[in-house]
Amino acid sequence: MRHVIALDVGGTGMKAALVGAGGELLHQARRATGRERGSDAVVRTILDFAAELLAYGERQFGEAAAAAGVAVPGIVDSARGVAVYSANLGWRDLPLRRLLGERLAGTPVALGHDVRTGGLAEGRIGAGRGADRFLFVPLGTGIAGAINIDGTVEAGAHGFAGEIGHIVVRLGGTPCPCGQRGCLERYASASAVSEAWALASGDPDADAADCARAVQDGDERAVRVWRDAVDALADGLVTALTLLDPRTLIIGGGLAEAGDTLFAPLRAAVAERVTFQQLPSLVPAALGDTAGCLGAGLLAWDLLETDITVRSEVTT
Question: Where are the chain's structural domains?
Answer without folding.
Answer: 3-117+289-303, 130-285
